[in-house]
Amino acid sequence: MYVIIYSNFKYYPEKGAIIMYVAIMGYGVVGSGVATLLEKNHEHILKKSMQDEMELKYILDRRTFPGDPYEHLVISDFAKILEDDEVKIVVETMGGLYPAYDYVLASLKAGKSVVTSNKELVAAKGCELLQVAEENNVNFLFEASVGGGIPIIRPISQCLAANDIDEIAGILNGTTNFILTKMISDGMTFEEALFLAQRNGYAERDPSADVDGFDACRKICILAALCFGKHVYPDWVYTEGIRKIDLADVEYARSWGGVIKLIARAKKLDNGKVSVMVSPAFVQNHSQLASVDDVFNAILVRGDAIGDVVFYGKGAGKMPTASAVVADVIDCAKNLDRKKYGGWQDSEEGYVADYLESVGPVYVRIMTENAASALAQVNQAFGEVKMLSRADAPDGEIAFAVSPVSEKELADKLALIKDAEIKSVIRITDY
């Protein structure tokens, strides 16, 4: 056998094929799924990517994998990937910001296209990395960073490109949705549902990124940047998780005519700013988002031409996420010499509006030892409210929904209720 070097690819005469080489950085759940899919659907991927041949050349990981079918490809030195001109596509599935950012940046500068599933990386550094990719005429693709296997990045970038999108919202975290589903359908407490999620492998031992809303925050930042054209930094986004949700709130949501979901949303404002928030919210039963249960995700996009469209599917998992990653690999292979998608501009502080300026209806639950006095104070503060009820409510528990009010006004008005303890405050959506 002999080999000819041809435009930084290896040409094998006996195969009649020019081989495109791929490297994977991070051999965890998603990375191993990518390797499996590249082999399992090899012929299909070749046809879609319009390549003669495609091979996995390196897997970067600090660990060793005795007995693994790809053990012979595992390396621990990133320099081997960086200095190998044959590697044209690098898949980053390491997670976290560092060293992923350093490796991705170096790969792009070396003229290699990069595919990532790392939402933390894209949310924090996406604007910069897209610019570097453009400067080096390569691609930086990240379909799997939002929604796992749900196609959303491409539809926003391509299929909905003719629309002026003014709002995007959805259920972006499967772990929290699973927990809330168990609370709604099975009457589990938050603690019980979290334990079940951990036992089933849906939640990490430290579930903070999920249950405190940080994962959903990173994803809505990416979607907002795509939709509105400017980078949204996670530190600018008001983020509230589901730890405080009580079964009492679940029952009052049912009485109101809906369910509780963790909703991430971004909306374009008339003053040029955007409103971005992650928080639990009441969702009406007739909403398409209300029926999204278990670990499934759903993303609602509002465009001026298309109206409301919803993208639905599994938001995480080995093979669904690997599916999105490999789709990006195919795109990179088809577009080696040109940029596949555009990016977005950087933004200045103040671009994301102060969440205290956000306006909307709100659900409130209070406990009091003097119901008459507390109700009088509620009516004085808010005027007319919609009272809610539930079976077996303890004495002194009062729940109500108030008309649209700004977050600042809400805080001021709640402070006027002296004879009660504020137990829950949950936003109400119109989705």
What does this structure look like?
- This protein is of the alpha/beta class and 431 residues long.
- It folds into 3 domains: 4-148, NAD(P)-binding Rossmann-like Domain (Rossmann fold, 3-Layer(aba) Sandwich), CATH 3.40.50; 153-314, 2-Layer Sandwich (Dihydrodipicolinate Reductase, domain 2), CATH 3.30.360; 357-428, Alpha-Beta Plaits (2-Layer Sandwich), CATH 3.30.70.
- 34% of the residues lie in helices and 27% in strands.
- It is built from 14 helices and 18 strands.
- It has helices at 29-40, 42-49, 78-82, 100-109, 119-135, 153-159, 174-186, 190-199, 208-211, 214-228, 247-256, 318-334, 371-382, 407-414, and strands at 4-6, 9-12, 17-25, 53-60, 74-75, 87-92, 113-116, 140-141, 165-171, 238-239, 258-268, 274-284, 296-303, 307-314, 359-367, 386-388, 397-406, 421-428.
- Strands 9, 10, 11, 12, 13, 14, 15, 16, 17 and 18 form a 10-stranded mixed beta sheet that branches. Strands 1, 2, 3, 4, 5, 6, 7 and 8 form an 8-stranded mixed beta sheet that branches.
- α1 crosses α12 (318-334) and α2 (42-49) packs parallel to α12 (318-334).
- The chain is elongated, with a radius of gyration of 24 Å.
- Residues 1-9 have low confidence and may be disordered.
**Helical content band:** 25-40%
Unreliable runs: 1-9
Count of DSSP strands = 18
Quaternary arrangement of the chains shown?
Answer: single chain
CATH topology assignment of the largest domain: Dihydrodipicolinate Reductase, domain 2
What is the overall silhouette? elongated
What is Rg? 24 Å
* Count of alpha and pi helical runs: 14
Strand coverage percent: 25-35%
Arithmetic mean pLDDT: 92
Write the CATH homologous superfamily of the largest domain. Answer: Dihydrodipicolinate Reductase, domain 2
Tell me the domain tally: 3
The main β sheet shows up as: 10 strands, mixed
